[in-house]
Write a structure and sequence with these properties.
Layout lengths: L2 E5 L1 H4 L16 E5 L5 E5 L5 E6 L3 H14 L3 H24 L4 H11 L6 H16 L8 H6 L9 H11 L5 H25 L1 H23 L6 E3 L8 H4 L8 H15 L9
Parallel strand pairs: 4-5
Antiparallel strand pairs: 1-2, 3-4
Helix pairs in contact: 2-3, 2-8, 2-11, 3-5, 3-8, 8-9
């Protein structure tokens, strides 16, 4: 996901003599690097000016950056991305539990959550207690029991200590440890998402819509854009949309690794578009 292919929406709507669109034609795709703004502006060979934003949640993006780092055999970098994804996931869940009823309420919640945004332990505490209060049972804990439950092994028994050893002690994980950590974090995120979906399916869909609307409004105002902005989403193994769009869909982890590796390699062969 660090190198993302993006298509000109106006060219995509063109239909050839056989009735096919240009969606799978690499001539109409462009290569961009994902950054924190998640905003892209480019002009296609036909002269069409395009504006697009990455519609995935932050934790989804970070997890897929971890997948890409794993496929490139940067195992330490992969683990740090998976760990960051978990922290941003707790932040996302807090927004779900606050259950904003309007875009205005959503923006107020985002603004006030910044008070604890830099303190991961405080965010986790807020997430844990809100989960307990609203669902009437405690959420899964990323600890030794959770690791044993899924029959995975790390250099230490506790996934949190494993993460801390890498971040603070400079520990370099093996390929096997990296894949175990990738799996345990995905199990953790998806298990919680499934529990939230079962409790209140609409809350995920509504909050994600507010997230997109808020990001789109902010970008259009900041960049002074009068036209439309394309919302671009990519496949994610821990995607929240996996539940509210198709809650029964099972995604194989090894299949996801393989597909994302193919997508990443193909994207690198596309024309590169610098962000302005």
């Amino acid at each position: 996901m660090n190198i993302q292919s993006i298509i000109c929406w106006q060219c995509h709507k063109k239909v050839d003599k056989e009735g096919n669109t240009q969606f799978f034609n690499d001539q109409y795709k462009h290569r961009v690097n994902i950054d924190n703004t998640r905003f892209y502006q480019f002009t296609c060979p036909e002269g069409h000016l395009n504006f697009a934003i990455q519609g995935n949640n932050k934790f989804e993006i970070l997890y897929e950056l971890g997948i890409e780092a794993y496929n490139d055999e940067f195992f330490r970098e992969a683990v740090t991305n998976f760990a960051s994804a978990v922290e941003r996931f707790h932040e996302y869940c807090i927004m779900l539990f606050l259950a904003p009823k309007s875009l205005e309420e959503f923006n107020i919640a985002v603004s006030n959550q910044k008070v604890i945004a830099k303190y991961s332990e405080r965010q986790y505490g807020a997430f844990f207690m809100l989960f307990l209060k609203l669902l009437n049972f405690a959420p899964p804990v990323l600890d030794e029991k959770f690791l044993k439950k899924h029959m995975l092994k790390l250099s230490v028994d506790n996934p949190i200590n494993f993460r801390n050893n890498i971040i603070h002690q400079g520990y370099i994980p093996t390929k096997e440890e990296c894949i175990s950590y990738a799996k345990i974090t995905s199990f953790y995120i998806n298990e919680i998402l499934e529990q939230i979906y079962t409790w209140n399916a609409d809350i995920i869909k509504n909050t994600n819509k507010f997230f997109i609307d808020s990001l789109k409004s902010e970008i259009k105002k900041e960049k002074n854009i009068n036209g439309d902005v394309l919302i671009m989403k990519t496949r994610s193994f821990v995607g929240a949309s996996n539940f509210y769009e198709n809650s029964k869909k099972e995604i194989d982890f090894n299949e996801h690794l393989y597909l994302m590796n193919l997508i990443s390699k193909r994207s690198r062969d596309l024309p590169f578009t610098l962000k302005k």
